[in-house]
Amino acid sequence: MDCNVFNPVDLPCGRTVQNRLVKTAMYEHMANFSGGPPNEFHYGLYSEWAKHGWGMTLTGNVQVSPHHLTLGRDIVIPPTLNAEDLKPFKRWAEVIHGTVDGTRTLAIMQLSHAGRQSANFIGGRLPFVPPLAPSSIRVGAGHTENRERGAVSDLMFHALFQVPTEMTTLDILYVQSSFVRGAVLAYKSGFDGVQLHAAHGYLLAQFMSPKSNARNDEYSVAPENVTRMLFEIVDAIRKVVPATFIIGIKINSADYVTSGSTEEVSQEGERRVLGHIRTIASWGAIDFIEISGGDYEKPDFMACRGSQKIDRQAFFAQFSRTVMKDLHRSPLPFPSVPLILLTGGLRSHSHLQAALMSKHADLLGIGRGAVLCPDLPKILRLQLQTSGSSSTWTDRPFAHEPEAVFRASKWVPSVKLIGAGVGTAWYTTRMRDIAVSQIKNPRAEPPSANYNRGGLIAVFKMWAWFDSGIALIWVVGIFTVLIVVAEVFYRH
């Protein structure tokens, strides 16, 4: 394997990623409330990343259903794909592509459906209308850790996450067609590909998990059925796009690898997810698989700090390496083997190089680091030109991480997701700062991060960005959920 982060790598579909640095998907929280197309704020934000030569840029999650939003301000696939509908998405793709030294960043649209994790009030439905899911199992039901979460947290979960309605076969077919429509939109808009979000407890992950899928039909979690929902979507997309169109998948691994020194590895779980990945790779239709994980029922790994970060700087690195070794031992022809994108914990220059040299990944995903340091590829290129070798890169983080502001106020109920959600709000407002800066002056350098902005101030600024005329019930609903559900939708 080439170990230089600036060496290009070919995808199975024949497209080339110009370098190994991938700006991974993060929820922007910039669309109109109740969902809509990308707008000037998205263009401003992504134009900053486009200046600096990322190999591939993944958008935040684009919802295929307007009735299953995450935090209210989601980009949504329009019901029709006429010329007017395509305009904002075409501009978005053009902005992402950019041009640095004659190379073009690959633009990948992440497609998602929240399923049972679409919260009340801000999920795109009338209050207390339940979301759709594989089975009628509420978020957190039957999970040992959540049974011990306390009365306040339990009350919040019951208010936010209703018992979902089990999907009928017609519901399933409609959702599949919605993903296909999203891929067609991406293709017609000039995106280079799509990533299907099958991680973090979203709908596609729900179909593959026994804790959310109790079906007994052809979409059950029986070995012969467990990836059927995902396969039928991929197969349908491949039939309507060119062979060079990129298809990636984001899959959940948090239940199977250590994300800190206190969590045990589940060998049975690892065997199961490896089986899923083998099956997905065997289709010969997937270009990259992102290794990630976590959902509402188990958010601890998202907020690990201090010694836990030191113990596992790349949360999923070992599992990712296992996947790579397994896939390259498979009978698949080498050009058909999906590339592995490792996301999580890559916080310093030396971590990037070590991940490649240790064969933990083919592609390196940067999320929050890309928000703190949007010009990271440019910085790394300059360092490489100065030193002549990436082997001299240090363990110094890309940028200072504002962990101190993540601590929730003593007046906020002690719920595990709260601290993480405060951090999410800080990064969300940081992205908005970048967007506004670029709208005002496209030639400006990225603004310095505001480390004086406290966590709860960030929460307020994130949610106080209202459209005029929002009904009082939506305002009340938003502030009910503003901290509790923020983190998981940002880390998609």
Q: Key features?
A:
single chain; 492 residues; alpha/beta; eight-stranded parallel β-barrel; two-stranded antiparallel ribbon; 14 strands; disordered C terminus
Describe the structure.
The protein is α/β, with parallel strands linked by helices. It is 38% helix and 11% strand. The chain contains 17 helices and 14 strands. α2 packs across α5. The model is unreliable at 255-263, 299-304, 306-314, 408-419, 468-473 and 486-491 (pLDDT under 50).
Instruction: Summarize the amount of helix as a percent range.
Output: 25-40%
Q: Main sheet?
A: 8 strands, parallel, barrel
Low-confidence stretches: 255-263, 299-304, 306-314, 408-419, 468-473, 486-491
- Principal-axes geometry comes out as globular
Strand tally is 14
How much of the residues is beta strand, in percent?
5-15%
Helices, by number, come to 17
Q: Whole-Å distance between the termini? A: 28 Å
Annotate the secondary structure layout.
Layout: E1 9-10, E2 16-17, E3 21-23, H1 40-50, E4 56-58, E5 62-63, E6 75-76, H2 83-97, E7 106-112, E8 132-133, H3 144-147, H4 151-160, E9 165-166, H5 169-189, E10 193-198, H6 203-207, H7 228-238, E11 246-252, H8 267-282, E12 288-292, H9 307-311, H10 317-328, E13 339-343, H11 349-357, E14 363-366, H12 368-372, H13 376-387, H14 416-440, H15 455-463, H16 472-481, H17 486-490
Parallel strand pairs: 3-4, 3-14, 4-7, 5-6, 5-7, 7-10, 8-9, 10-11, 11-12, 12-13, 13-14
Antiparallel strand pairs: 1-2
Helix pairs in contact: 1-2, 1-14, 2-5, 5-7, 8-10, 14-15
